Amino acid sequence: MNLHNKKIHMIGIGGVGMSGLAYVLARMGCAVSGSDIEENVITKRLRRKGVIVHIGHSASRLHAPEVIVYSSSIRADNSELVEARFKKIPVISRIELLRMVMEKYRKTIGVLGTHGKTTTTAMVSLLTEYAGMDPTVLIGGDSPHFRGNAKIGKSKMLVTEIDESDGRFVCLRPTHILMPNLEREHAEFYRDEAHLVNVFKRFISAQPERSAFFYRIEDANLRKLAKVSKGKVFSFGFSKEADLYAAGIKIEAYKTGFDCFSRGRKIGRFILRIPGIHNVIDGLAALSLGVELGIDSGTMKRAMAAYKNVRRRFEVIGDLNGAKVVEDYAHHPTEIRATITAAYSTKPKRIITVFQPHRYTRTKVFFKEFSNSFAGSDEVILTEVYAASEERLRGAGAKRIYDAMRRTSHIPVKLLGKNEIPGYLSKKTKKGDLILVLGAGDIGKTAHELVSGVKK
User: What residue spans in the chain does CATH classification 3.40.50.720 cover?
Assistant: First the structure.
């Protein structure tokens, strides 16, 4: 399907993945419209870019589109989707649209994995931008460097984050694939970790010989994928056996330094001005690609030192009673542990962690892992699950994590409604504390309420 000058309507346009594609399509000359259930900063930004955005879904809003695109969060009984199929308007998924966009570029860099996709994508985007490669980028979060989650470049290079949540990504053929990690996630689709790994094996084994696969050497699942790759394979990590590795790591508050070696040769000392060893891993993924693309070490040093994290990734929102309020997208046990470790490196007096579980399926499968993921916190506040598009599952609420923590953890834990959290913390926090607000749902609003003092 040729997308040029097409009328495209996007259901779920306010999502971070859909909105980036909407922006790129609009800049390509397509007439783009879309709908979502509520207004947000993304829908407002799209309107400023000339995209028609409707709030609420209605079949009456389909004004002769030539293609309908839907996001993974859209249910089959959505009124616009039902109407489109009734009228026999071509309907494609977001991943299918991404595939069509990728086919317009000669060099396509796809970032996948369970954790760190957005940060890695943003780092690669900045690195190639600093190198003068002028890429088009699609990032799963708002980057301060690009003033949003997408940018149109003039070159034939595309850098994109790839969503693996429903297995549809197997149709994609990036020329370069970056993966920092792979472990069980998306319990709403994958039965278990073996199922997840097998789907990724299908994806990697289907790539042509001209492809390149960059993976973290310490990850056992990724080593399995490397064995089925027909293309070039590059490893990175902390082991000297990796093609590119880090050593001499020094962690300070909001600053991490490390020496980087490529095939045993030191290419320089790099500085990241964001906390957390997990960000070093993401940085190594980007640097591994940079070496393969022939970017000089000086340019890579400048890009890494200049890098600022995307929104909702250890984002400092402000202060409450002298306590620093930090918001992070962490919604998996591994991500929570990494974020708390990063917070600890900033040397606060106390860490108070607020967590909103995301999806009932994830909460049901990982409740034990969640209950054990808050080590380093001085207190934990849990609030109810953000359902996303899911129906409520019995026994899969935040209380299940709360009960497990009460039985097995020494960390004080409370279960509060979102509207109760600002009032509780305004009395609880003191100067020098750090409040971590974690979750992929709407808990970010609570972080801003803490700072603004507005209780909504």
Answer: 7-94
How far is 392 from 400, CA to CA, in rounded Å?
A: 14
Residue 107 tokens, joined: 């060099």
- 117 counts as catalytic: yes
| 287 three-state secondary structure | helix
Mean pLDDT taken over the chain = 93
Q: Which two tokens stand for residue 425?
A: 């913390």
- Catalytic residue from among 43, 80, 114, 117: 117
Please list the residue range(s) of the chain that carry CATH number 3.40.1190.10: 105-306
DSSP symbols for 117-155: HHHHHHHHHHHHHHTT---EEEEEEEETTTTEEEE--SS
Q: Distance between CA 45 and CA 22 in Å, rounded?
A: 11
CATH number of 105-306: 3.40.1190.10
Q: What is the pLDDT of residues 197-218, one digit of tens each?
A: 999 999 999 999 999 999 999 9
Q: What is the crossing angle of helices 41-48 and 16-27, to 10°? A: 0
Residue 118 a catalytic site member = yes
Which three-class secondary structure state does DSSP give residue 196?
helix
Q: pLDDT of 219-233, one tens digit each?
A: 999 999 999 999 999
Fold of the domain spanning 315-452: Protein-Tyrosine Phosphatase; Chain A (3.90.190)
Catalytic residue among 129, 161, 327, 379: 161
Structure-token pair, residue 230: 């027909």
Look up the CATH number of domain 7-94. Answer: 3.40.50.720
Residue 201 a catalytic site member:
no
Catalytic residue among 118, 136, 175, 256: 118
Q: In the chain, which residues fall in CATH 3.90.190.20?
A: 315-452
**What is the sign, positive or negative, of the torsion defined by CA atoms of 224, 184, 138, 254?**
negative
Whole-angstrom Cα distance, residue 440 to residue 223? 29
pLDDT band of residue 1 (cuts 50, 70, 90) is low
Residue 358 confidence (pLDDT) above 60: yes
Residues 225 and 239: beta-carbon distance below 8 Å: no
